[in-house]
């Protein structure tokens, strides 16, 4: 019975590989639909924070004249959109719409005693236009909060008395300043309202009226302020998110997702779903970076964001700051104008790369009816690939792993299709590079079978010019030489030229096997939510660690004798201080490696400069850990492992490059063609560097042999 089960598992291996390849083929059309989607949104929208401009103008001698001049310069630079926040009384005062007074200031101004037991807020409008536009808005806001108000006039100016302390009055959030909206619209700017969920309770009628006004001003998209979208906090009682979503669809207004937030804005995913993913991604340049970064650095950052991360809106901040060196208040506006509209600015450079300035649009996506069935085939292929990985370690569990994979997938499909897709994508992403590396190691073992010998003078002397006599003399001196040089295991029989050719072939085939995991990643995660980073692929750290650990485990336990015998030998070994130190070093290296991976990985300033240089040179930056480290080391390791057993450790390091190729496609927000070019560049450059390293090794080895030969006594001496 056991023999029959073993035969079934061996026979099943071919069928599972066939199912895996069928899954790869089924994933290609899914990738093609995503490729087409990524071509549909190319225009880049440059947005400036209007409140920052108001604040900068407030430090000028003539704020209104300064504002008008800067708005004109922004249009000339290519900044076509202004972001307008919801308003507060203190912000309206900064903008010159009204003047605020607390109880003490009002008493002094009117030359009357300070009333006891009263803390009211007083305001005077700057003119009739300001009163007509703002008084209804203020009255509606404070009335909704249960705060009484009444008309007030001073020196011919009209205003209001708000029966609440000054500190409370300035914290009330109101809709955006209608005068600012109208002025910006008349000057030809697109408007990006920035709404919060602070105006509560949510009122559907008021929101409808506000969005109708926005639509009349040409608003096509909304950006949210704070940690939640409008309507989120009242959704449980009022279903306000759904009501707000209906209004957005009614007026054809989309939403914006901000990149890099520490915590996603609550309710954004639900609102994105309700608006049929009428979403664009936005990158915000901080006011510190706007002031400190050079224009060319800002341009490079924007270009990388547009190409690699599908960013279609750039939000520019620019707060004023005090400078003792310059003796006044400074701002980053001139720096931003150079970065955006200069001769080599973002508008011109991004346009040359196919990203013209204009109104940002969402991706146009299609969902053909066959998508669902193709994804089912991809799921079957992923389960097969994962089962093959289990079978590589435990051959008798191949069919059991496949059956359990099918049952588990069916259960997850009922519970959560998202978890199913991510789980299978992660499993396939781990399995493919691991299987490729196991195949390479088995091929190396197939060509290095035979007794292992110590590296010593006798072995190399036998290849010298002195012939057998010199070899015998070298062998006689081998023990003393071993003490000087050390011990290494070698495998005879293959010439350097043949080892080079075999290493290159193994490198190519291993890469092809590893890349089998790529279609499963983009086929299973073929959802707009990943492209918009509304949902992220979980398990990136595991994808970076598991293949390395599995390859090391395979080398230690599953090569040579049986795994059980190898495990017993390993457990019986004495643990020394050196082992503990080595484990600590590996742990630190692993933590550093993980800190560099995933969407939150960090890089040094020097490396960022190097990355930018690569980006400018090749257009698409290959991953440095692939072409500078993993691929060259892997190719060198294959070449050396065909002779030296100790070189197998290099194959473990080289596994980083194989898994990194799959991980490149796990960044779903990066366009497919960028990821494809990136891994091909990495393989090409890595192979060239690896061949150079092999040449250096051969040269160093030849020099060492000559040096060693001088210490071998000649026969008859």
TrEMBL record:
It comes from Paenibacillus beijingensis. This is Uncharacterized protein. The chain crosses the membrane at residues 15-32, 423-441, 501-525, 537-558, 570-594, 676-700. Keywords: Membrane, Transmembrane, Transmembrane helix. The keyword Transmembrane applies. Pfam families: DUF5693.
């Amino acid at each position: 019975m056991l023999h029959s089960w073993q035969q079934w598992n061996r026979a099943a291996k071919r069928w599972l590989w066939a199912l895996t390849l069928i899954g790869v083929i089924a994933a290609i059309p899914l990738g093609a639909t995503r490729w087409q989607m990524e071509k549909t949104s190319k225009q880049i929208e440059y947005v400036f924070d209007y409140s920052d401009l108001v604040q900068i103008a407030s430090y000028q001698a003539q704020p209104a004249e300064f504002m008008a001049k800067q708005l004109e310069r922004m249009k000339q630079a290519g900044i076509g959109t202004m972001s307008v926040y919801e308003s507060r009384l203190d912000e309206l005062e900064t903008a010159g719409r009204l003047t605020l007074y607390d109880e003490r200031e009002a008493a002094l101004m009117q030359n009357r005693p300070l009333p006891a037991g009263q803390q009211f807020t007083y305001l005077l409008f700057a003119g009739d236009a300001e009163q007509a536009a703002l008084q209804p808005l203020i009255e509606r806001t404070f009335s909704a909060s249960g705060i009484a108000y009444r008309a007030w006039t001073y020196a011919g100016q009209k205003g209001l008395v708000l029966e609440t302390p000054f500190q409370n009055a300035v914290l009330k959030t109101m809709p955006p300043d209608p005068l600012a909206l109208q002025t910006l619209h008349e000057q030809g700017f697109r408007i990006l309202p920035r709404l919060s969920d602070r105006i509560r309770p949510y009122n559907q009628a008021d929101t409808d009226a506000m969005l109708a006004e926005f639509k009349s001003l040409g608003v096509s998209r909304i950006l949210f302020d704070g940690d939640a979208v409008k309507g989120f906090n009242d959704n449980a009682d009022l279903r306000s998110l759904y009501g707000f979503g209906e209004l957005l669809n009614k007026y054809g207004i989309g939403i914006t997702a901000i990149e890099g937030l520490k915590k996603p804005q609550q309710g954004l995913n639900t609102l994105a779903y309700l608006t049929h993913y009428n979403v664009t991604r936005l990158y915000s340049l901080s006011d510190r970076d706007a002031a400190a970064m050079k224009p060319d650095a800002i341009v490079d950052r924007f270009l990388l964001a547009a190409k690699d991360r599908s960013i279609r809106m750039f939000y520019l901040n620019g707060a004023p700051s005090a400078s003792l060196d310059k003796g006044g208040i400074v701002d980053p506006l001139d720096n931003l104008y150079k970065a955006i509209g200069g001769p080599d600015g973002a508008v011109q450079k991004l346009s040359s790369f196919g990203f013209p300035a204009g109104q940002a649009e969402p991706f146009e996506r299609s969902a053909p009816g066959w998508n669902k069935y193709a994804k089912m085939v991809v799921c079957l292929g992923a389960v097969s690939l994962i089962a093959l990985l289990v079978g590589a370690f435990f051959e008798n569990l191949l069919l059991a792993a496949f059956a359990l994979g099918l049952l588990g997938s069916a259960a997850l499909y009922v519970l959560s299709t998202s978890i199913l897709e991510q789980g299978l994508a992660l499993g396939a992403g781990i399995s493919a590079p691991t299987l490729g590396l196991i195949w390479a190691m088995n091929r190396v073992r197939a060509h290095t079978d035979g007794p292992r010998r110590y590296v010593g003078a006798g072995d190399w002397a036998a290849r010298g010019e002195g012939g057998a006599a010199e070899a015998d003399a070298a062998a006689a001196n081998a023990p003393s030489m071993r003490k000087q040089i050390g011990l290494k295991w070698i495998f005879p029989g293959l010439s350097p030229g043949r080892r080079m050719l075999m290493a290159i072939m193994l490198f190519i085939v291993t890469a092809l096997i590893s890349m089998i995991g790529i279609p499963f990643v983009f086929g299973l995660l073929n959802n707009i939510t990943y492209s918009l980073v509304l949902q992220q692929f979980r398990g990136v750290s595991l994808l970076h660690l598991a293949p390395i650990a599995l390859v090391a485990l395979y080398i230690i336990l599953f090569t040579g004798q049986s795994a059980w015998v190898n495990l017993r030998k390993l457990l019986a070994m004495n643990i020394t201080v050196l082992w503990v130190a080595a484990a600590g070093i590996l742990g630190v290296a692993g933590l550093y490696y993980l800190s560099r991976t995933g969407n939150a990985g960090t890089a040094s300033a020097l490396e960022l400069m190097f990355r930018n240089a690569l980006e400018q040179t090749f257009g698409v930056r290959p991953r440095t850990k692939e072409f500078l480290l993993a691929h060259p080391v892997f190719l060198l390791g294959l070449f050396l492992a065909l002779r030296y057993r100790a070189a197998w450790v290099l194959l473990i390091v080289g596994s980083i490059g194989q898994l990194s190729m799959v991980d490149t496609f796990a960044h779903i927000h990066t366009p497919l063609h960028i990821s494809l070019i990136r891994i091909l560049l990495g393989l090409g450059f890595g192979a060239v560097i690896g061949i150079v390293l092999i040449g250096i090794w051969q040269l160093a080895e030849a020099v060492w042999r000559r040096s060693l030969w001088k210490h071998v006594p000649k026969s008859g001496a």
